[in-house]
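Final report, section 2: Outcomes. Of the targets proposed, Rhomboid family intramembrane serine protease is the one most frequently requested by collaborating groups, and we therefore present its record in full.
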Amino acid sequence: MERITQTVKHLIIINAILFVVVQYNLIPSLNLKEITPIYFFENPQFNWWQVISHMFMHGDWAHLFFNMYALWAFGSPLEHIWGRNKFLFFYLSCGIGAALIHSGVNYYYFQQGLQALEETGFSAEMVKSVLAEGKYNTAWEQIISKSTFDDMMSAYFTPAVGASGAIYGILAAFAMMFPDAKLMLFFIPYPIKAKYFIPIIVGLDLFSGVTGFSVFGGNIAHFAHVGGALMGFLMMWYWRKKSFDQNRWDRR
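The predicted structure is given below as tokens.
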């Protein structure tokens, strides 16, 4: 198994320390549980730093363990090849990209609900002012579809935490760097090559996000996962293309 690299080790330590600090409220004067998750950008609890801070927080021990295990298992080989600076840039970029795509999907769901309410006579300003107080009008549940209402409320009120978006970017990069490495899904006891394994995982997340039927369980920001993988794929594609363009030669 790959020996843990320095940047990966430091990221794991930082995530573990922050998890313990938040879990046991070791800094009572600073409510990290409230200020570090990423909220919908029109929610009064949103702050710009959450685009980064959310990826260093986790909801429970299992969430932390699986993300840090994946960071070690798939991140260490990449850092070994790339070095510290390139790996850290890639990791943070995928986490930020995941947050932006997650927020973009939330914006779509919020606007969908807002438009449905406007069509029934509620003004956008009034709806937003009620939501900004942490409330909602119970009449809204009766006049728009349940799925639209639930998606709108979830988009506005539910914060997101976790390194999963950055981890999915790492998974995408690993599949492109080591396509024939054999991996196993916990419910399929048969080794699958990374070039198939990772797209399957991302595809299941996309399916869960689109349909609302979560294959991996509840309280998962599926589009953040997909966004991180997409960001990782695009960065890898760009780096490969740039490397090819710099090294190619023309026959005369």
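The chain has one domain: 6-240.
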